[in-house]
Every structure is written in C-alpha cells, then in structure tokens.
Amino acid sequence: MDEGLFGPRTVTWHLHADPAMWIAGICGLYLQALHPRAVAAVVQNSRFQDDPLGRLQRTGDFVATTTYGTTAEAETAAARVRGVHRKLRGTDRRTGEQIRLDEPELLRWVHCAEVTSFAGVVRRAGFPLTTAQLDQYFDEQRRSAALVGLDPAEVPGSGREMAAYFARMRPQLRRTDDSDLIYRFLHRPFAPWWLLPVNLGYLPLGHLAYSVLPDWARRVHGRPAYPPPVVAAGLRGFRAAGLAVPDQVRFRYPGDHVQRALDRLGAAAAPTTGVPSSP
C-alpha cells in the first residue's frame, strides 16, 4: 500500500497535522521575507496581494499533498511547482541582476525557513518533540527539498546543521521594502469585508505568528512583538482549540488530505498529538 513520501511512522506525518501548523506557516512567511533576493522574487512574480487566501491555500495544499498524498500525487504537485519556478525571473533591486526562482540558494532558504518554522512553532505550542525527533524531522524533510529540485545532501538534516545554516545566512538577511510589504500583508484582513468575524479572528493571529519568530529575526524586521506571556498563552490556546475539534471534522478541513490518507491506509494511520514511541 502506498504511504506516500512519509507515512504514519514518520515525525512529519504527525507534526504536519497539528493545529498549530496554521500559525507556523504564517511565521515561516515572515522569516522567508528577510532574504532580499528571495522576497524580491516573490513580490515581483506572485499575485498574493490580489488573491491572499488563494495563495495561502495553494501553499498549504502543496505541503499537505506532499505529506499525505500518494507518491504519484506528491511527484505531480512537485513537478508543477518546479515548472513554475523554472519559468519565472525576478530582478535584484540593488544590483539589477536577474534572479532565477529555481536558484538552489533561494530554494534552500525557502525550505529551511519553512521547516524550521513548522517544527519550532508547533513545538512551542505544546507538541512534544524530543531533540532526536527534531533531528529526524529535518532529515525527513530532505525528501521535500528534493521535490523542489534541491540535492538532499546539500540541505540541513539535523537541528545542529540547521542552526549552523542560519548562522551562515544571517549576515545576508535584512529588512527591505519588500519585507515590509510582506509584514503589512500578513497583518491585514484576508477575507472580504463582509466576513468580519473571520477578519477579526485572523488579525491577532497574524501578529502572534510574527511574535513567534526567533529573537534575531524580529530584530531584523524591527517591529515589536506580543509580550512572551501573551505569545505562550496564544499558542497553547490556539492549539487546544484546534484539538478540541473532532478528528472527523479536523481531518477534512480546510482540505481533505488527511482524511483521504486515512481512507487509503486505514484508521490506524491517523496522526496523533505527539510522535509515537517508535515512528
């Protein structure tokens, strides 16, 4: 039976189903925006400002498909993304040089910022993750890196390697007009004005996602964050509210990726609120 790229015995399978992934995903966008070339390429090529919900939904669908879909579904989704990246170009605002969206340096940055945010935020929200399991997660995520065209051997595969990567990258990161645009975008209402309850619910979450960035990243952005007690309470409260939703509902929305995986593999494959003792 095809478990896909990961399967129920991986850390990825359980961590990516956690409700705190909503906040982790937005946090990753704030972090990604600090790379001047990467954020310039996004701003110059994406319609995210015209279709914010659609853009976030497509990103979420890609992560969910590569996690819970069949091998063929994951490879098809990845081929589509590689094809888009291969065609698009941006311009470095400082030098005028052309930026290829499929440059390994940029793909590696986006990958590392994303998976570091996923693991770090979900862990802070209360998902129990040991150091060994964190290392395993980063190693597993090399499979995701390969999907977008990276050499897995050149992608950090442990917590120590990931920390060393960010230490090397930090001198290149800075606040720019493009990062400010992303900051403002992630703080504004996403839904139409007539969905006022949705917007009122999102706005504090947008700043909570910013507030869970590493201290050094918030210093680069140069914006204040919620106080630590508010961050801790917000993260755990959001996760608790998500876990209170029955699995029969939670595994079907916003997409039905998890439920389709359970239909394929059986109820015993259901993601848990922590990593099983023998993943």
Tell me about this structure:
One of its GO terms (molecular function) is oxidoreductase activity. Pfam families: MPAB_Lcp_cat (PF09995). InterPro entries: MPAB/Lcp_cat_dom (IPR018713). The chain is mostly helical and 279 residues long. The protein has one domain (11-269). 61% of the residues lie in helices and 2% in strands. The protein is built from 15 helices and 2 strands. It has helices at residues 11-15, 21-32, 36-45, 52-68, 71-87, 104-125, 131-140, 142-147, 159-169, 177-185, 196-211, 215-221, 228-243, 247-250, 257-265; strands spanning 89-91, 98-100. A two-stranded antiparallel sheet has the order 1-2. A hairpin with a 6-residue loop joins strand 1 (89-91) and strand 2 (98-100). Helix 2 (21-32) runs antiparallel to helix 6 and helix 2 (21-32) packs across helix 11 (196-211). It is globular, with a radius of gyration of 18 Å. The two termini are 18 Å apart.
Q: Which labels suit this protein?
A:
279 residues; mainly alpha; 15 helices; globular
Q: What distance lies between the first and last C-alpha atoms, to the nearest angstrom?
A: 18 Å
Estimate percent helicity.
55-70%
Structurally, the number of domains stands at: 1
What is the total tally of β strands? 2
Task: Give a concise summary.
With 279 residues, the protein is mainly alpha-helical. It is built from 15 helices and two strands.
Helix and strand layout, with pairings?
Layout: H1 11-15, H2 21-32, H3 36-45, H4 52-68, H5 71-87, E1 89-91, E2 98-100, H6 104-125, H7 131-140, H8 142-147, H9 159-169, H10 177-185, H11 196-211, H12 215-221, H13 228-243, H14 247-250, H15 257-265
Antiparallel strand pairs: 1-2
